[in-house]
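In this section we walk through a basic example: taking a raw amino acid sequence and producing a predicted 3D structure, encoded as discrete structure tokens. The instruction is simple. Fold the sequence below.
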Amino acid sequence: MTLETALNELNDQLRAALPPEIAEVLDADRRRAATTFAEVGAKIDDFELPGADGTPVKLAALVEEGPAVLVFYRGQWCPYCNLTLRTYQRELLPELEKRGAKLAAISPQKPDGTVPELGFPVLSDAGSTVARGLGLSYPVSAPVREAMQTLGTDLEKVNGTWELVHPAVLVVDRDRVLRFVDVHPDFVTRTEPADIIEAL
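The resulting token sequence is shown next.
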């Protein structure tokens, strides 16, 4: 089963459980217009972000011995993100290790001390400083904010701000040059593991 198939099945299940008016708002948000993102060939600045346990991780350390795959995701509250990260853990991480590449996940969620059961760093870009520099962050619209609050997700508490990131995968080489950029304004869709391996 591809990641796309699994995500679509999950979306069908979740959507069926939602009140129609909320489902309509979230469906409209999936059709969000793309903005200008960082492009292949651009060199990005080094950054240092805290892990879930507070331990800082630098981009320079991630690319010290080979390329790094950076996965930007919305937060641990997002079921699509959790499914994607578990898939990457199972299908992508072993292949990256064979190729000498590192994997790290980044979200705007504040570090809360909860360490996900994943074999790669999960970093907190609170305030979306790194994501904003890559063109990945955006403010949550009023209708979506209201829908999320109705569903019990208060980004003000979780992220510190009503700002989200487009799910994205970036491959960065040892010189911090972007070699692959795949951004998904439709938050139900994500990058297939096979596409990331091919990019490497």
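Looking at the output, two observations stand out. The two ends are 22 Å apart (CA to CA). The chain has one domain: 3-199. In the next section we compare this with other chains.
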